[in-house]
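If you are new to this repository, start here. Below is one unmodified record pulled from the training split, so you can see the exact layout before writing a loader.
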Amino acid sequence: EYGTAGNPSPGIPSMQDRIRTLMAMTYNSCGEVDKSLSPASVQHLCTIVDSVVDEASAMEIDRTVEPFLPSQGTHVAATIARRLRSHYDDDVNKKLFVLLAMVRAFMSADTSVVFLSKASIDMMLVVIAVAADGQTDTAAFDHIDEILRNIKSKYLSPSEASKYCLLYTSDAADEEDSGDLGSCRSIKKTNKTVKCGDGKS
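And here is the target side for that same chain:
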């Protein structure tokens, strides 16, 4: 979230709010100014996401996404995020495979003429948030955290980067840790508790 955990900055939507807004829209209607994707392209992206079962099959995402970058990055990321959230939110392995492929494509995009827009990077952060949500494996969580740090260092200013950090949150009902994309000044991870910002758990 923006601001400190549990206390978002007034008037600025949290990452979960942004995900809910995205899910309330149809594909290709995320309101961004990037060149839109054709219905056939949206369907193809969804089909590719549906087919991902391992790292090898996820390579098709690299090949499919590359032609759309950087000019249509926002819509590509929005389509991927929406598909994962709506159809595969409980499939943490698929979400991780898809995220890794998306990051490879974005990080290798040719930006010598056209840069990745801020909207594209913001939407990639939404993809990261969707992929992190529900992750209970420490190694997977740490991998996503490393991805976030790489995205921040390459594309965001220090002040913008400070708004985002990956948190472990806990569900009191089942006592399982899960991932979430939040924002804080400092993090202290314990076995069940995250202290963030003002030090309150």
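Two things worth knowing about this chain: Helices lie at 15-23, 39-51, 55-65, 73-87, 92-107, 118-132, 138-155, 158-161. Confidence is low (pLDDT under 50) at residues 1-11, 170-179, 182-201.
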